[in-house]
Amino acid sequence: MKAPSFAYSKPQSLAEAFELAERPGAKVLAGGQSLIPSLNMRLSAPELLVDITGIGSLRGISVEQGVVRIGALTTHAQIERSAEIRKHAPLLAQAVTHIAHPAIRNRGTLGGSIALADPAAEYPACLVALKATIVVAGRDGERLVAADNFFKGLFEVDLRPGELVVAAEFPAILKEERSVFLELARRHGDYAIIGLAAHKGAETRFVYCGAGATPVFAKRASAAKDLDTGKKALEKDLNPPADLYNSSATKLHLAKVLLTRAWNTLTTSH
Amino acid sequence: MEHANDITLTVNGTRVSRRVPARQHLVDFLRDELGLTGSHIGCEHGVCGACTVRVNGEIVRGCLMLAVQADGCTVDTIEGLSDAKELEALQKAFHERNALQCGFCTPGMLMAALDLTKKNTKVTREEIRAHISGNYCRCTGYQAIVDAIEEVVNGQG
Amino acid sequence: MGKAELPLHAPGTQVDRGYIGESVPRPNAQRLLQGRGAFIDDLRLPRLAHVAFFRSPHAHARIKKLDFEKARRADGVIGVFDGRAVAEYCKPWVAVLGHLKGIKSPPQHAIAIERACWQGEALAAVVAESRSQAEDAVALIEAEWEELPVVVDMEESLQNKTTIHPELGDNICFNRELDTGGVEEAFAKADVVVEDTFHFGRHTGVCLEGRAILADYNAAEHSLTVYQATQAPHMMQDIFSRHLGIPEANVRVIAKDVGGSFGIKVHVYPDEMATAALSIMLRRPVKFVADRLESFLSDIHAREHRVKVRLAVSKTGEIVAFDLDDLTAIGPYSVYPRTSGIEGNQVVNLTGGPYRHQKYRAKMNVVFTNKNLTCQYRAVGHPIAVALTEGIVDLAAQKLGMDPAQFRKINLIADDAYPYTFPSGLKFEQLSHHKALDLLLKTMEYSKLRDEQSRLRQQGIYRGIGIAAMIEVTNPSPAFYGVGGARISAQDGATLRLEPTGMVTVMCSVTEQGQGTEAAFAQIAASAVGISIDKVKVITGDTGVTPYGGGTWASRGAGIGGEAVLLAGRALRSNMLDVAAAMLKMDKTELDVEKNYVVNLLTREKKIDLAELGRVAYFRPDTLPLDFQSELTVTRHYTPRQYAFAFTNGIQASLVEVDVETGFVQLLKHWCVEDSGTVINPMLVDEQLRGGVVQGIGAALFEECVYGPDGQLLNGNLADYLVPMAGEMPDIVCAHIETPTRQSQLGAKGVGEAGTAGAPGAVMNAINDALLPFNARVTAMPFTPERILKALKKV
User: Fold this and answer.
1) Mean pLDDT confidence for A218-244
2) Same topology for domains C3-34+491-638 and C379-475+644-791, yes or no?
3) What was the ipTM of the complex prediction?
4) Do the chains contact at B63 and A39, CB–CB below 8 Å?
5) Cβ <8 Å between B136 and C41
6) What is the pLDDT of residues C583-622, one digit of tens each?
7) C727 touches chain B (CB under 8 A)
8) Measured between beta carbons, which residues in chain B are less than 8 angstroms from residue C694?
9) Could you tell me the domains of chain A?
10) In the 8-state DSSP scheme, what is residue C631?
11) B52: domain range?
């Protein structure tokens, strides 16, 4: 189980990274916690790995004027330890504890997770629930993409060749707002059978992971006035694909259970 | 482009320079290039934790990091931390409580456990179990491991 | 006869047990704790070559063409070989045994020739300077296939619509029927008849260290040294010798540290045989370490049974008869040399084992399929026999409205009924089911838990308590394999040598896989000789060094190897006293050995330091009488004979909470009471029991090799195949009863299977107990959330 041979380059600037990432057969390496296993299993055979971890501007968490900005290279562990995230983005603070294990959280990054867009991953669902903006950049400059539009299909995102995810931005939680992240995994740190990122602000959003090719914003359920209507509506919102151990019907059932639990949490006063 | 790169890093306190294939992961480098065979290979896809080593003070999966990425880093393995006595209390507790059988998971398990001791707070058994939940042991029932870690972290028997 | 010559369990005596029964930490664990073990992949030899295998992507296909041209030209490649090339150096094998009447299997080659019969079967070997280069070249092999019909489902296999090996006539590898007579009548007359069908998922051992072998052929002396992660070095020596055509004396098998085995590493694997053959062909050392993906495709799998069972019970709760129909699938070949007929055979032998009914009928079929091979993995057959027995027993208790513990009390074989012959023909020397049940109920505070359970039920919290009683095969005699013609030793030997400094070196044929064999032997040796344990050094796992023996499997290490060490220790001590008597000009019977000294038997006065005894015996024997020759190296052997097995008994309980909305099961606690005879080291025994329990929990809740209809393994990696991790495991409470076997001086029975044997049934019963208010029941392992939700009719 050894990776196929490839070249490696570690640019120190974004400009250099854009140029390298555009080359045929190039793949961007951030934390590597999903990419390297796929290399070891020979599921991926890039010509060139472009290691962007040397680019300092992609790191860091900031909260300015009510906007939380998380740099793409921020690790899960940094998010987990961040007092600012706990205060301003409790949804992410809850979600991050579900991601794998300490040794993996030390290297895996937010940017890597959203650029890969594994449909069972936690962050993409959170970012859609928070109506986040994904900041992407390439040779032609920066683009802002709404998380709603960023996740386009199975492992498919709105990134053009040579473009990188730079950061995710979303409004800091307001006092009257609530968030809850729930997921069902059979073991600690496993990818979720199904997960739910729920946020109640001016608008309520229930966004599922593990329920489709992308994070699935359950629009009808989110608009429902009461739980029963919401659960019913979920049948129209979701058509989750079966996995190895769970049929679509099971996942839908579990999605309803999570909806119930999230609903109760969001509607219970502090 | 070349498929090999020159790297210089500090392993167990010693500076080493090598030319490494880009595809070589860190634990293969440690084992095959440096002869540090204490870090084990159990799955090579990041699930079992047998290859857990410390890079710049933080535990990582040795199979999910390329050796070339360790250029300029400080890497600590079971051998180095044993010699430096950093693991002494955990090793003693593991030994006295029989928290290992075949010993294949043990170096990685000790790395994960040491990480928990660094937090300097008391922990529950559930927290210990969660912290080592990415380290697979097929021999023990995990209980002796949890007992040993609890003894060291919480300073009690 | 001095007291040291008595059995440890001699009635009415107070034999000094020394370290036996003490929780001594394992001396050999220190190197493992510091990362200084010596696993196969840690070895470095000059000119070492690495092999990777080209494995079949199809479950069943004829090879039309294999093109090695590109692979041969790849960087670092030393050679590429197909099945025919390797067959010139390695004879094929047929895995059948004489005592399994009618068992059949076709010849199997190290590298398949012409046809692949499961996905993952090796079809070519690439040897290169590094594993990476070997894998690069494997990817360049071009193959053309003719896909053949695939038999995946065992019921279909039994119907024989497609015959995997036409030359065998049908797909049945082995079948067995057993009937005590009177079963039909018993069922006809029974007050209550319950029946159910249980499914046991196919799973595998997942040793953390993959299978590993480094074969080093020396052409100059036509000798082969094999460093191998194996449980049975002498068995492998014999196999390498016979199949590779090298005289036995020229084959040395060394198994130093082994990273978990659990039965996985006691079989003959084609890729390992090929590695040894390649070393001969290339006249250089060749190493193969199975990576995780190929482990899932080529390590033996186990279980995969469908069992129908019926139970006839009287209205007062007495079990009258068992009726069993077991079907199991083993892949396309029976595994060499133990065969794949044993697990089903064990299910027939052990079903109903703890209970005192006399009517029993069983039917069992072992069929071929186009999946990876199955064979003996930890607790062979036990988890199946225990779960189906305990599952059907609980169902009967439920139907009668009896408490499950009470139902067992009525039916367990009485503690004074031994020796006892079970309807399947097995003989039990002495078991302690009732003592064990009583201890279990007391330890777990059974009635308190029942009260808590009903209280919580009112609050919508669904907890369940499950009990599983069991018997286990340990210390197997030659009746297990030897009588069937397998060259598998049921005897073991130990050599003890007093070193000149007064230390003792122990060399034993039982191997260490982490279970603590070496520590247990050190305890026994130190106790038998009369020295402190720090003076003992134990060497195992080297056919060039140790006496001949079977190795580690079927819970035999401590009971058989330990007895050999005890006997050798006593003999050495006697010989030491001969030397002391000669030195002191005293009578031997006046002397004893204690704490590294020869002492006066009565006064306990120290007479000679053993270092002095060693010095004189080895360096100044000229000072001893002319007619005296010291013998300070002794070897003793032991074979259990009178009983086919030293059966042990145990009982487990599981406490779970089922989330009836999600189908998730939380394990709250587990209890394990075990009677394994003399306990040599309680600490080692307890954690081994717990490790076994966790493997059993894996079977119950997590583990299954899932195959698609085309015979493709769908979850052959550690992310998708779920092994139990620390986060979900409960604390496990162990307690012991000690009923020593009177067949040996030591009185130890085995303990390796117990946890794995009992846990699946206990967990299943606990889940079903929790589901009782919903009239729901699960019987197909693993009990995934979906299966539980389906039982609850939520999906």
Assistant:
1) 97
2) yes
3) 0.98
4) no
5) no
6) 999 999 999 999 999 999 999 999 999 999 999 999 999 9
7) yes
8) 140-142
9) 7-51 (3.30.43.10), 60-171 (3.30.465.10), 178-267 (3.30.390.50)
10) -
11) 4-81
